[in-house]
Amino acid sequence: VLKVLSHIDCILRSPRAPPLIYRRSKGPVQNPIKENGQECGFEHLPLTIEMWADQLMALKDLHRSLRKLSLELVPWHTADPQDNRESIRVEDLQFMVDAILEDVENQEKNSQTPSLPTLFAIVSHFQKLFDVNSLNGIYPRMNEVYTKLGEMTNAMRNLHELLELDSSAPPTVVVDIVGKLCDVINENVTEQVQQLLGTQDIHSIINKLEEHECFFPPFQALIQDLLCLLEISNLDDILPTVRNLK
What we know:
Blueprint (H helix, E strand, L loop, with lengths): L1 H12 L20 E2 L2 E2 L5 H29 L16 H20 L6 H14 L8 H25 L8 H27 L4 H29 L7 H8 L1
Antiparallel strand pairs: 1-2
């Protein structure tokens, strides 16, 4: 036992040991154990070994936490062969951290492979823009937006061709020209109506329409009676039939 304790004590005193692990007892030692006439100072070993045991247990907890982090950041990695080992080494943890850092750096350098947070932000932004409440509604809304965009693109292309505009003309220019054409058409229609009715006054137009409403129903009834009386069905036959009766 003394040899084992001496070996452990040598390990704790070695330059490789962390400086805070080995602390020589400052007070007087009760019943010191001596080997080869020298004081071994084994009284601090139990506390040190307990601390080592706690650190080894903490390594397992840290390993589980790193595995969870790895699954979140790089879920395409398969489980490493160290998962089933009872003892976890610091080298294993350092390897996992290096692997995660390498994958994250590669993702940042390669713009064609966006990170999961970036993809999540894109999906959330699409949902806000197009009022999609659930993930299941994203694909139908994408199809709807694609269809509407195609229809609008074709309509704008046809308007550019009809109006003899350059394909780079913005929609505002197209709308402005269409509005001007509508104004010109409306003006021409008004002029034609005025020429047809022989008046430039809107009140005269109203009066003529009212006169038409008063005159046309009795005239239509008279024509219908003549057609029945003369036993004919065509308006063009009324005058020849009346002449024959004379």
